[in-house]
Specification:
The protein is mainly beta and 160 residues long. A hairpin with a 2-residue loop joins strand 5 (48-61) and strand 6. 6% of the residues lie in helices and 45% in strands. It has one helix and eleven strands, in the order ββββββββαβββ. Strands 1, 4, 5, 6, 9 and 11 form a six-stranded mixed β-sheet that branches. A five-stranded mixed β-sheet has the order 3-2-7-8-10, with no helix packed on it.
Length: 160
């Protein structure tokens, strides 16, 4: 008897947006994909830097969504995205050499369900861009508003 294979279900794309608020002047930021690929921001103003990217919804692990893709880092239970700055972002002429871990744990099954039911929406997180020392944000960061939120995909940055 010929071996039958189960058809693969199509992957579900999850559109995400990270906005770095109040970045230090003159410091470049890039989204890290994989081990070393750097992705330029989607939009930049003097007061905000925006990254738009997609992850894929993988098989559920327990009660938490499993987000996969080039920008997803870390183990399934503690996934995060790196936002690199200064030398980590490819800017060699700076003293800053940092990267921030933006946690994905706040993305719940209920939030994903709302996103998939919405038309032209994205999950957005905002992070502070400057540390107390005046340099770019680094280490594991807290989200402003403390959570990911559903917003219209076309919502624009605040004016500078």
């Amino acid at each position: 008897m010929p071996k039958t294979t189960k058809p693969q279900s199509p992957s579900v794309e999850v559109p995400l947006r990270i906005i770095v608020v109040h970045p230090p002047a003159g410091v470049e930021f890039r989204l890290q994909q994989g081990r070393s690929n750097l992705v330029a921001p989607t939009r930049v103003t003097p007061t905000e830097i925006q990254f738009d990217f997609n992850l894929r919804l993988g098989p559920t692990r327990g009660d938490r969504p499993n987000l996969l893709g080039d920008a997803a880092q870390g183990p399934p239970a503690n996934r995060f995205v790196y936002v690199n700055s200064g030398r980590q972002a490819g800017q060699q002429e700076t003293c800053w050499d940092r990267r921030a871990k933006v946690p994905l744990q706040g993305i719940t099954s209920a939030l994903l369900k709302a996103l998939l039911a919405a038309n032209d929406a994205v999950l957005e997180a905002r992070i502070e861009g400057t540390e107390r020392d005046g340099g770019p944000v680094c280490a594991t960061v807290s989200l402003l508003g403390e959570t990911w939120r559903l917003v219209a995909k076309r919502s624009s940055l605040t004016s500078a």
